[in-house]
Design goal:
It is built from three helices and no strands. The chain is about 70% helix and about 0% strand. It has a domain of about 45 residues. The termini are far apart.
Length: about 70
């Protein structure tokens, strides 16, 4: 049951992605930067991990037993 829902969600997302890609291609048709724009469009975003703030580091040091 859950697996079927996940598969359906994935299919919908892939369909939406395909439609967006086609719309992007139509809008960028004839643009001299199409290769670069396609590369940027396809690029995956990698989020950086948040570094702890000074306050969090201090709290962590105080709360750990020695």
């Amino acid at each position: 049951m859950k697996l079927e829902l996940k598969k359906k969600d994935i299919e919908q997302l892939l369909d939406t992605e395909h439609k967006l890609w086609e719309e992007f291609r139509e809008l960028a048709a004839g643009d001299r930067f199409i290769d670069y724009l396609s590369k940027v469009y396809k690029k995956k975003i990698r989020r950086s991990k948040k570094k702890p703030t000074e306050r969090q580091r201090t709290y962590h040091l105080l709360s750990t037993p020695n």
